[in-house]
Amino acid sequence: MQETRPIYEFLLAQEVYPNNLIICDEDVLQRAINLFKNCQYKVSLIAFESINEKMHDSPDLEHKACILNNLACAHFKNGNYLQAYSLLKKSLGVLPNTSNTENTIKIYINLASLANEIADIKEVESYLNKALDLVSTLDGPKNDFFCAIYDEFGVLYRESVKCSEAIPFFEKALQYAMHNTPQQSLNTPRILDSLGLTYKIAGNYNKASELHNKALELYTKTLESHPNMGISYYGKALVHRSRGEDTTALQYLETCLKIFQKYYPETHPEFAKVYNSICQVYNSQFKHVQGMQMILKSIDIFKKNQLENHPDMAKFYNNLGLVYKGLELNDSAIKSYETGLSILKAIYGDNYPGLAPHYNNLGVIYRRTENFRKALENYLACARILEIAFGEKHPLKAETTFNNALLFGMKQHLDAERKLLQRSNILFKCCFGPTHPFTNKAKMNIQRGAMLAESFSFDIGQPAI
């Protein structure tokens, strides 16, 4: 049997990060792997597909499993998530019981990475626990494996918007990344970006900005260019947009796009996430037609990749609803928000924090159409979820408190309106600072004592969450 040898290179499959490769000794396979390592993902996919065809009838099952794993990695990097996931399951099924333990661990970690990416959340923890059990049997180096496993646990909890649980896992992963790992130059900034995205969701924008800046600094010290650098710029853009600094956010998003365009096909899901964020910037600038163009691109990319029921698709529908709201197409906005709600509830259940913006935005539309009962019902649902997930002092809680105040104002409950506006003003100052547009909007309504400002809507991270 052809012996396989593992390589300790863990560039993980969350956001735009590659998976683990299992390296075999043939020259042709080594050339394909080198293409992958040099970020030539389109060409590496062609090479791995050719190798896999030649290995179709091979009796060497472990070698065949390794090829399937590497082909899955190439499909992942080209945005073919479902095909990559299927190939990894096939790889695990082919792998014999006598196989190299390290290769089995890699496949389990890769399965967890893809399960995270396609929101197969019930399987993520199972794959990671199986990997942990096998790592405990190893006599050799374990740091890279622990780094990978804890990183994926962090992703699992972040995507479930359980930030307080995600952060310790990322911090553990970071410790292993910085301790005698051959890929420290890539692992460390990658995990810093993951932490930054998590702190952004948690509403700690200063910490998020600090982490993304540090990640980008580490990348630029060691690399001229790499697709992971796009995530650093993307994270910086999300922070600036949350602060109301739309021009700067747009500049970083455009930089991110340029980096991705060097490495990924135009149908890669990462582009959809960036277009979604550009749509958010255009919405806040009242450029709703341009926003519509961007969000329809996002939806089209996910449909082409058969990701219609992915959590990110729910975010796209939320932002499509915001576009319709800006164009005063209220019925279409409601339909979009409710479509997003149904996708998220099916995956995460009724208490998922990502439901909050959909409830808030439904409340805005129902308030606008003077359906006050439904407006209040949705605002209260939003507030309840945010209170459970984040506590009182979170930017999203400030926003829904403000919108609730507008509702009471329209119902002529002026005392309740004034108290809620004052509370939202305090929360805005705490979360954004005294000069943020949202803080000024709340202050203006308090001072004028009338509903002179249109309510706004919001979204929960990239995720993106």
Please name the defining characteristics of this protein.
72% helix, 465 residues, Serine Threonine Protein Phosphatase 5, Tetratricopeptide repeat, globular, disordered C terminus, mainly alpha, 2 strands, single chain, two-stranded antiparallel sheet, 1% strand, 4 domains
Topology summary:
Elements: E1 5-6, E2 22-23, H1 27-37, H2 41-54, H3 61-77, H4 81-94, H5 101-117, H6 121-135, H7 143-159, H8 163-177, H9 184-201, H10 205-222, H11 228-242, H12 246-263, H13 269-284, H14 288-304, H15 311-326, H16 330-348, H17 356-368, H18 372-390, H19 395-410, H20 414-432, H21 437-448
Antiparallel strand pairs: 1-2
Helix pairs in contact: 1-2, 2-3, 3-4, 3-5, 4-5, 5-6, 5-7, 6-7, 7-8, 7-9, 8-9, 9-10, 9-11, 10-11, 11-12, 11-13, 12-13, 13-14, 13-15, 14-15, 15-16, 15-17, 16-17, 17-18, 17-19, 18-19, 19-20, 20-21
